[in-house]
Amino acid sequence: MTLDLDLRTGWPEDLRLLVERYPRTVWQGHVNLGDLARFWLSIHDGFRQSALNLARGAAEFREGKMTPAEYRLWFRPRLQTFLGHLEGHHNIEDYQFFPVFSAAEPRLVRGFEVLESDHENIHATMSESFEAASAFLRTEDNDRDAMMRAADRYAAAGQRLLRKLGRHLEDEEDLIIPLILDRGEGPLGIR
Fold first, then answer.
1. DSSP state of 127
2. Which site from 94, 134, 184, 186 is most exposed, i.e. has the minimal number of CB atoms within 10 Å?
3. Quick one: average pLDDT of 73-91?
4. Does position 99 have pLDDT exceeding 80, yes or no?
5. Is the predicted pLDDT of residue 141 greater than 90, yes or no?
6. Position 89 pLDDT exceeds 80
7. Phi, psi (5° rounding) for residue 53?
8. Integer-rounded Cα radius of gyration of the chain
9. Helix 68-92 with 109-138: angle, nearest 10 deg
10. Using CA atoms, how far apart are residues 179 and 177, in angstroms rounded to an integer?
11. 147: closest CA among 79, 75, 82?
12. Within the chain, where are the H helices?
């Protein structure tokens, strides 16, 4: 099974050792699902929702439901916030949480290394999305064809980002939440 973000469909069996014991169906009611884990899951849900909202906005613009001026006003701050928060979140995970989790469960180190690699892949796609968005924002309102081509390029880049992010978030949760449920936030030192 490949672990490349663009091809993977989940974790191989050796990295599913805790998610088999703690499937998603038991997460919400588990005594060890603490405040930090709940907050972290809500952040992930926020990223999913923001990415979907950006995709929805792009589709509405391309369908003529928003004028260029309306779309630019709506789009720019949402994209900047989304990309900025995602970058910050990944830095916290890479430099604070993943080392703690790797030390706590050495059998999952390869999974955390894959997640860090995912962050690099996602950041490259974030840059691609940002460049496509910037090109769109630079187009002239009176050049409808250029604007639509630029909007199409951004929409395609946004869809790639949404797909990668969705796979990554699900896999990250399947690695981390079961570890938290197994050990508890306090003993892991992440309270």
1. H
2. 186
3. 95
4. yes
5. no
6. yes
7. -65, -40
8. 19
9. 160
10. 5
11. 75
12. 24-27, 35-62, 68-92, 98-104, 109-138, 144-183, 185-188
**Contact criterion met (CB below 8 Å) for 168 and 122:** yes
CA angle 12, 18, 23 (to 5 degrees): 95
Write out the two tokens for 164: 């990668």
Residue 101 token pair: 């989790």
Residue type present at position 137? L
User: What pLDDT score does 1 carry?
Assistant: 73
Rounded to an integer, what distance in angstroms lies between the CA atom of residue 111 and that of residue 16?
10
Mean per-residue pLDDT over the chain, rounded: 95
Q: Looking up tokens 């672990």, which residue turns up?
A: 3
Q: Choose which CATH entry (2.40.50, 1.20.120, 3.30.450, 3.40.50) describes domain 13-188.
A: 1.20.120
- Token reading at 94: 């890479």
> Mean pLDDT over residues 17-46, rounded?
96
Show me where the domains of the chain are located: 13-188
Yes or no: say if 81 and 134 are a contact pair by the CB < 8 Å rule. no
Tell me the whole-structure pTM to 2 decimals: 0.93
pLDDT band at 60 (very low <50, low <70, confident <90, very high): very high
